[in-house]
Amino acid sequence: MAASAEGDHRAALAAVGAERIAALAETSDRPGLIRLASHLGLLVLTGSAILAVEGWWRLPLQFLHGTVLVFLFSAAHECIHRTAFRTRWLNDATAWGAGLALMLPPNAFRYFHFAHHRHTQDAERDPELATPKPRTRGEYLRRLTGWSYWAAQTRSLINAAAGAPLPEYVPPRGAARVRREARIYLAIYAAAALLPTLTGSTLTLTLWVAPALLGQPMLRAFLLAEHTACPLVPDMLANSRTTFAHRATRWLAWEMPWHTAHHAAPTVPFHRLAELTAEIEHALKSTAQGYLDAQGQILRAIDARR
Fold first, then answer.
1. Residue 209 DSSP label
2. CA dihedral for 98, 104, 110, 115, sign (positive or negative)
3. What is the rounded (10 degree) CA torsion for 164, 170, 171, 176?
4. Could you give the C-alpha distances from 126 to 28, 116, 119, 242, 274, in angstroms and in order?
5. For residue 232, what are the CA distances in angstroms to 113, 205, 228, 266, 286?
6. Opening angle at CA 80, ends 7 and 118, nearest 5
């Protein structure tokens, strides 16, 4: 059932004012460069810590490193919107590199994600809902492992590279780019897979593959909190959850816990979302006090379906 326009995100943005929204939407290279440099710097530190120890002591460090690694998703997300930086090539290069680390080619991701923005929580047209949300606690736990993500991305890359039909949200003008990008990514992954055999080095496994697998549950939980158990209505104040999170979490996620503000005004860059949230906070309809609260809301909604 559609939500009434009265009191929805359009009314909230109108109250903020077009001039204020336009000012918030101004992009800049500096905040993005600082965030990217600090994110990559932390990856260097956590990666160095892994190499400094041996044996099973590496596992907790790989989990930590992997959590930082998989949250490059947030950098890729901001960059496909081309709001992380004012300079376009910085957005595109960062999205390409971050996407490579996570099997997330940016052109395909952009088409998928923009369709999600156009049709958020529309059961028929939102591509995020093509994969059903967890309906049981078992499905919830399986989603957290990330295995369904890796399997879906692998199939998507292979299908695109092989010339199979693309999803309908990919426009004909973008098909060649999506296919070319998939082939380049697969070639790089094949080369990376051969490195241990050719060089005897296991660095790609130690610093990339194993950490990405170990850290993926943290990203899955974060992404589930964005819309799961929110109403299937067009109103962004209701269909997207704002999670009031610790500043360290907001830093790692490139401020995406302010998710309602991002959906209401996707042209506003990450470093201004807190300001926009403050402007519309009184109107928010789906919120959580941290990610444990968000997961609790999701689990209670799952239990209520029984």
1. I
2. negative
3. -50
4. 30, 5, 5, 19, 26
5. 17, 40, 10, 19, 12
6. 35
* Those residues with Cβ within 8 angstroms of residue 295's Cβ, 6 or more apart along the chain or in another chain: 221, 224, 225
Do 169 and 163 form a contact (C-beta atoms < 8 A)? no
Q: 300 CB contacts (<8 Å, ≥6 apart)?
A: 229
Provide the token pair at 286: 């789906």
The Cα–Cα gap between 247 and 127 comes to: 30
Max alpha carbon distance in the chain (Å)? 64
Three-state secondary-structure class, residue 47? helix
Q: Please, which residues bridge with residue 288 across strands?
A: 243
Q: Which structure tokens are listed for 194?
A: 């051969």
Q: Are 27 and 254 in contact (CB under 8 A)?
A: no
Handedness of CA 99, 105, 111, 115 (dihedral sign): negative
pTM over 0.90: yes
Print pLDDT tens along the chain (306 aa): 233 445 899 999 999 999 999 999 999 999 999 999 999 999 999 999 999 999 999 999 999 999 999 999 999 999 999 999 999 999 999 999 999 999 999 999 999 999 999 999 999 999 999 999 999 999 999 999 999 999 999 999 999 999 999 999 999 999 999 999 999 999 999 999 999 999 999 999 999 999 999 999 999 999 999 999 999 999 999 999 999 999 999 999 999 999 999 999 999 999 999 999 999 999 999 999 999 999 999 999 999 987
Q: Which of 45, 29, 30, 108 is nearest to 76 (CA)?
A: 108
- CA distances 7 to 20, 175, 235, 263, Å, are 19, 39, 9, 16
